[in-house]
Amino acid sequence: MDMMIENKIAVITGAASGIGEATAKLLAKEGAKVIIGDVAQSAEAVVEEIKAVGGEALFVRCDVTDEKSVRNLMETATASYGRLDILVANAGIPEKKGPVHEMQLDDWQKVLNIDLNGVVLANKYAIQQMLKNGFGAIVNMGSILAHVGQVNSTAYSAAKAAVVNFSRSAAVTYATQGIRINCISPGYTETPLLAKLPEETKQAMIANHPIGRLGKPEEIAEAILFLVSDKASFITGTVLHVDGGYTAV
Ligand SMILES: NC(=O)c1ccc[n+]([C@@H]2O[C@H](COP(=O)([O-])OP(=O)(O)OC[C@H]3O[C@@H](n4cnc5c(N)ncnc54)[C@H](O)[C@@H]3O)[C@@H](O)[C@H]2O)c1
Which residues form the Ketoreductase domain (predicted)? Predict the structure, then answer.
């Protein structure tokens, strides 16, 4: 199926690994020119893999918590390719889990800074570029934990829930200006993050997904591709749950 994103200019944050990497590769395969913004230098290897199969990609070192760095990412995308069409604000970290009464403010702020403020800054500077051409499609990264609670997970849940409602308000703000903003909420997905977990923990996670397994990064990427493509031209301000039924029970 032609997803109609050929020659679209797409910035993806946190695409050195996991869901972001799978998304960068899929969007490039569909013909988009991909700009990866990540703190990890290993994003260069993703760029090389994309180029090796005939795609176009660029790595710009970016820390999503640093306003100047995020502005530079979006401005570099526009300077390199003439405009910015797509943003996938994906960069995120897990939290150090624990009960609220033992929480360290530094730990809380670190998660909020990357998982929420990083998304907001990416939207701010991407939208500035998108307004110039009157077109844009943004997907912000939520999580199942934006919608349901989990024992000892507070900063991450709070950040992701805020991303969801930030996305709704941003979506209605720019709805008449050609910019669509949506959110995606994956279930547990087999990224390097989860590979480190003990088998027992993994089995407990699987048990919470009615579909009977965890997600694959490529499955999340397919849903992101749909939302940023013109196939989703009437969809804005929504949340797509890609979670094997986790939040349906
Ligand atoms: N894996 C899951 O089960 C799962 C489930 C739901 C939501 N998510 C969300 O999906 C997103 C990607 O997760 P993943 O599992 O692919 O993780 P990952 O660790 O494989 O990838 C995260 C990427 O973000 C980058 N990053 C971290 N801090 C950054 C910063 N300050 N600036 C720029 N880049 C930064 C990392 O270098 C890495 O490349 C995250 O927002 C995560 O919360 C993941």
Answer: 8-187
